[in-house]
């Protein structure tokens, strides 16, 4: 049984779920089906807070809505626990891709940290192989059901550990066999990208792309370090780049904004922001602006010309889908079909694919949106 898909919404007479989408910020261990957790948990004797899949889904949503990234991350103890065997990893990855395809995603990048899946004796290469097997099975299953999807791995290192160079080497080793990029994940505040400069230097020497979690639980300095030390081509969340914007005045819909140097750099260089609206609310990433979606600086960033993209972050924890996130934004900010298309085109342009394949993806989006 797939993760609960929120009821479809229609915009300008078109089903949002039917539209072609690109997902750039989507965690594998954040998208495990609750029913799968129950089933795999039973096999290993895992102590679960709820034995019923629907009740467990409610538990995840409740615990994740804490206003703290640290508390939010604690819910991952359950999902990673059932992802310690080859069979568990392959199944979770297969179902993950199937759920993406059901949501209308045609290209996705799934991020996960191999170092968190070694508890039952698998090696780093073995866990990557298991996930890649599941991804390919999911792609094949989607094709059999009449959907086309491609998914690449973003190999992530945990920012509070000291294995980032080893994980970077792992990612490069799997280039061309499923890995398309690198990331650092985990607790952001207190663990800046600069701690992993050696790994990022290595990746740069290998011309291997990186996106960096920054601007979620920490602010401008974290984003600066992601760009300088991490050479990030995208910003994981990056929502707190808005702290480098000074709203000078508002007159109706007219907003006069003064840019800081960092914000101007990110905007002018079209560095994609991997924004995740529901998750940003749950983790308190937008606490400086408010506690509701209408307080989210998403629309301000969009209107100012930033390369905003829409993402789910963690489908299970936020009990969401890309369709739902787009519907929420459309309702809150009165976006049209053209706006939703822009978000997908931004994501396609920022995908870690060769330029020819990005252009093909852009053509698929344009066709799907009726251009």
TrEMBL record:
Top-rank EC class of the record's enzyme: hydrolase
InterPro entries: A_deaminase_dom, Ado/ade_deaminase, Metal_Hydrolase
Matches recorded under SUPFAM superfamilies: Metallo-dependent hydrolases
Domain Adenosine deaminase: 20-366
The species this protein was found in: Microbacterium pumilum
Cofactor: Zn(2+)
Pfam families in alphabetical order: A_deaminase
EC number(s) on file: 3.5.4.4
Keywords: Hydrolase, Metal-binding, Zinc
Protein name (database record): adenosine deaminase
Top-level taxon: Bacteria
Family statement drawn from the similarity comment of this UniProt entry: Belongs to the metallo-dependent hydrolases superfamily. Adenosine and AMP deaminases family.
């Amino acid at each position: 049984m797939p993760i609960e898909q929120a009821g479809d919404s229609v915009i300008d007479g078109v089903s949002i779920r039917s539209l072609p989408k690109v997902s750039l910020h989507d965690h594998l261990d954040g998208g495990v089906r609750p029913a799968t957790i129950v089933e795999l948990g039973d096999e290993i004797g895992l102590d679960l807070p709820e034995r019923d899949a629907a009740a467990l889904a409610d538990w995840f949503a409740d615990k994740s809505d804490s206003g703290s990234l640290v508390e939010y991350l604690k819910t991952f103890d359950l999902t990673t626990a059932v992802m310690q065997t080859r069979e568990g990893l392959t199944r979770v990855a297969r179902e993950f891709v199937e759920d993406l395809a059901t949501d209308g995603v045609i290209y996705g990048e799934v991020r996960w940290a191999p170092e968190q899946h070694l508890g039952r004796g698998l090696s780093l290469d073995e866990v990557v192989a298991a996930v890649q097997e599941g991804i390919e099975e999911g792609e094949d299953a989607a094709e059999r059901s009449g959907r086309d999807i491609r998914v690449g791995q973003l190999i992530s290192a945990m920012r509070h550990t000291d294995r980032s160079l080893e994980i970077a080497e792992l990612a490069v080793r799997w280039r061309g066999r499923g890995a398309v990029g690198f990331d650092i994940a985990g607790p952001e505040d207190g663990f800046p990208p600069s701690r992993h400069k050696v790994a990022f230097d290595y990746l740069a020497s290998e011309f291997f792309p990186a996106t960096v979690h920054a601007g979620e639980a920490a602010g401008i300095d974290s984003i600066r370090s992601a760009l300088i030390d991490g050479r990030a081509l995208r910003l994981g969340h990056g929502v707190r780049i808005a702290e480098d914007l000074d709203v000078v005045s508002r007159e109706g819909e007219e907003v006069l904004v003064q840019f800081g140097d960092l914000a101007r750099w990110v905007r002018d260089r079209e560095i994609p922001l991997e924004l995740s609206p529901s998750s940003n609310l749950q983790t308190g990433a937008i606490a400086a602006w408010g506690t509701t979606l209408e307080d989210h600086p998403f629309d301000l960033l969009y209107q100012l010309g930033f390369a905003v993209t829409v993402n789910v972050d963690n489908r299970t924890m936020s009990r969401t889908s890309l369709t739902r996130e787009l519907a929420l934004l459309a309702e809150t900010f009165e976006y049209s079909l053209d706006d939703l298309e822009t978000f997908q085109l931004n994501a396609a342009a920022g995908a870690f694919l060769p330029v020819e394949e990005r252009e093909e993806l852009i053509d698929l989006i344009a066709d799907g949106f009726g251009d």
